[in-house]
Amino acid sequence: MEASVKTPPDDRDSEQIKDKDTEEEDLRRSGRLRNPTEKMLAFHKEEAHKKEKRLTHIYEQWKIQARKAREQLKLNIPESDIATLIDTLEEGKNCVINLYIEIRAHLTPSNETRRRIDACEAVTRDIVKIALERISGIDGEFDSEAVKQRLHELLNRDYAHSIYGSTASPPSQHSSKGFSQHSVVAAKRADAAAELAAKEAEYEVLLKEEKQKEKIQLLEEQQRKELEAQKRELERLKAEKDIKARVCSNYRGITLLSLPAARARFTTYDQEVMQEASVHSADQMRTREHQYVYPPPSALIQQPTDITVTASPARTDVSYLAQAVQDSIALNRLPMPEPSVFTGDPIQFIEWKASFTSLIDKKNIASADKLHYLKKYVAGPARKTLDGIFYRNDDEAYKDGWNRLNHRYGQPFVIQKAFREKLANWPKVHPRDAEGLRAFADFLHSCLEAMPYVKGLNILNDCEENQKLVQKLPD
User: Fold this and answer.
1) The whole model's pTM is what?
2) Contact of 381 with 418, CB cutoff 8 Å
3) For residue 117, with 0-12 CB atoms within 10 Å meaning exposed, 13-18 middle and 19 or more buried, which class applies?
4) I need a surface site. Which of 130, 232, 347, 447 has the fewest CB within 10 A?
5) What is the phi-psi region of residue 344: left when phi exceeds 0, alpha when psi lies from -120 to 50, beta otherwise?
6) What is the mean pLDDT of residues 21-32?
7) Taking the CB of residue 343, how many other CB atoms lie within 10 A of it?
8) In which band, very low, low, confident or very high, does the pLDDT at 272 lie, cut at 50, 70 and 90?
């Protein structure tokens, strides 16, 4: 059985030989280098020379376009022509660059060719920059002298001498070493000029973005203020409407209740005055009868003047009553004060507690009503602190609620910790952020005002804490 399972020796040797041949063939294929022949190299060089001649022709055409574009920019041409000029010049430059890349793939370009490519890029960048500024209107209205002066400055740059003609110098006859150094310096200078132009353009874009952001913020702030003013006006109108309705009802009630009393007082005073006048007149008649002298008729006519004089207290009492009614109406016009809603911020707890105590706790009302108001003016996480006490309506429930709030939010350590955490998490104020700086200053002022009443908050006067606060200010 074992002899029938084993593989014959000849078959195993043939398999090993096949495996070795396959590995050697794979090694030969992977390690094979493809070197171009001499004819192929000569063909590539010949094609590169042809492309180099073509590059010279395209470069000369681009030079003509650059000179023409510079001359056209001296005139007050429309923006559409300026855009066409930019497109034409950019297209010529791209043709020169693309052909140069093809030549460099097969042949090392000469220093003169590199200098031409650098000059092509730099001059195109200068002209396009001036044209874009003309379109964007940065310099304002067209000024012929200023434009000519700026275009004339382009002639003073080293890389532009061979482009604009008159100041172009013939090919240098110096040694290859000096020519190479001059080309390297010119290339570096062109790169520096290009980088400077790019940075200037980027800086201008950033300035425009910053101005646009400021305008947007200003518009948003104006809209927010207008919306708040309209809301306040609407609330004022509603409050005025409610007050007028309340005043009218109160005024009617006061008038209906006070008018009978005023009439009764006036009638009483009138009766007393008439009695005094009748007694006085009777005494005078008795005196005159004893003297046997009859008074003239004019003496009797003067009696109503005495009645009028004695009736002045009734008018005075009515004026006092009218003044009381006016004072009551003025008091009813004032809005009813009420405390704010406490949501669990320890910084606001002291102020909220004072307002609640003054407006509700000191009122002579039942504990159940006070507990109802406490539930009304507490919300958020602070409301969860009071869970369970609203099932009761006695004094102990009301006191228990205040004990929980004082323990959770009224401890000096909790309040000063809240102040310090808010200062630590305060974002850094950015430059030109007037609103942020004002808000930070207001909060620091509130911290200063709270120091005498919050134990432990004086730690903010420490020099290390002051250093942390200074880091929040803009650079």
Assistant:
1) 0.34
2) no
3) buried
4) 232
5) left
6) 56
7) 13
8) low
CA distance 394 to 397: 6
CB-based contact 184:113 (threshold 8 Å): no
pLDDT of residue 29: 53
Q: Which residue's entry shows tokens 């004094």?
A: 395
Q: Alpha helices, DSSP H only, in 31-78?
A: 38-73
HSE-CB at 147 with a 13 A cutoff on CA atoms is 22
pLDDT in tens, 86-136: 898 888 889 988 888 888 877 787 888 888 888 888 888 888 888 888 888
Q: Tokens 């310096």 correspond to what residue?
A: 185
Contact call for residues 389 and 401 (beta carbons, < 8 A): yes
Closest CA to 201 of 90, 117, 126: 126
Q: What sign does the dihedral 133-138-142-147 (CA atoms) show?
A: negative
Dist CA 340 CA 356 (whole Å)? 8
Long-range pairs, 434-442, Cβ under 8 A, ≥24: 437/473, 437/474, 440/472, 440/473
- Alpha-carbon dihedral of residues 424, 430, 435, 441, nearest 10 degrees? 40
At residue 292, φ and ψ (nearest 5 deg) are 55, 35
- In one-letter notation, the amino acid at residue 315 is R
User: What is the helix (H) or strand (E) element at residue 263, kind and residue range?
Assistant: helix 176-291
What amino acid occupies position 179? Answer: F
Cβ atoms 279, 306 nearer than 8 A: no
Closest of 447, 453, 405, 407 to residue 424, by C-alpha: 447
Let me know the angle formed at the C-alpha of 294 by 291 and 297, rounded to the nearest 5 degrees: 150
Tokens standing for residue 27: 């090694």
For the chain, give the percent of residues with pLDDT over 90.
12
